[in-house]
Amino acid sequence: MSLSIRGIAIYLAVLASWWARAADPLPPAPSAYVNDYAGVMESAAVHRLNTRLESFERESSNQIVVALFPKLPDNTYLEDFTVKTAQAWAVGRKQQDNGIVFFAFVTDRKMRIEVGYGLEGRVPDSVADSIIRNEIRPAFKAGNYTLGVERAIDSLIAATRGEYQGTGKTTHEEKNEGIVIPGWLALCLIILFLIWIHTGDTMFQRGGRVVVHTGLDLLRIV
User: Fold this and answer.
1) Are 92 and 116 a contacting pair, CB within 8 Å?
2) Do 92 and 72 touch, CB atoms closer than 8 A?
3) Which of 12, 25, 35, 52 is the most exposed, having the fewest neighbouring CB atoms within 10 Å of its CB?
4) How are beta strands 210-213 and 218-221 bridged, if at all?
């Protein structure tokens, strides 16, 4: 009996540990391409790079997102955190899986590029590591985070351009496109609505009597 209780206790402990890890909050999906949560970039550069990445998405359908954090969350590992966050953010188009996220954690001096399956042919691990080592890290080491991000974006755009064709719209725009009702149809609907109201008013104005079935609590117009 004691072994059974011990087994249950171990199972519950493992389950609690798994649940705690699963419940770790991930950062919410950003609304911009360049997200300087660490406050280390020039604001004018952030705006300029956001505009550039928006234009690139319209041209290529590829989404490139940058996220600079002050540090990694406590009790997390770099790859585990970046993979889960990139998956949760669902960057890129679902059909092509053509999103890329560049993560950097300033205090920890750690960075990683997560690439969707649709762009792994253009940006395999070797290319991503080379971009970090040769383009980004020297600028970050010198304290120039704006230059490092610009170099990252330059390299990623150059590596992925031509893989897919854009639609002229961003993923956000396509997801939020509403149903546009033509003017003539809207007018017809308004006329039909007015006719329906008028018909209903006329019906009630014809002196109909109301029959009450008390046992069933029903009302019927005769």
Assistant:
1) yes
2) no
3) 25
4) antiparallel
Q: Which two three-digit tokens encode residue 210?
A: 């109301």
Q: Is 211 exposed, middle or buried (0-12, 13-18, 19+ CB in 10 A)?
A: exposed
The model's pLDDT over 167-196, given as tens digits with 9 standing for 90+, comes to: 888 887 877 665 445 566 667 677 776 776
pLDDT tens sequence across 89-122: 999 999 999 999 999 999 999 999 999 999 999 9
Burial 18-57 (b: 16+ CB within 10 A, else e): eeeeeeeeeeeeeeebbbbebebbeeebbeebeebbbebb
Length of the chain: 222
Q: pTM to 2 decimals?
A: 0.70
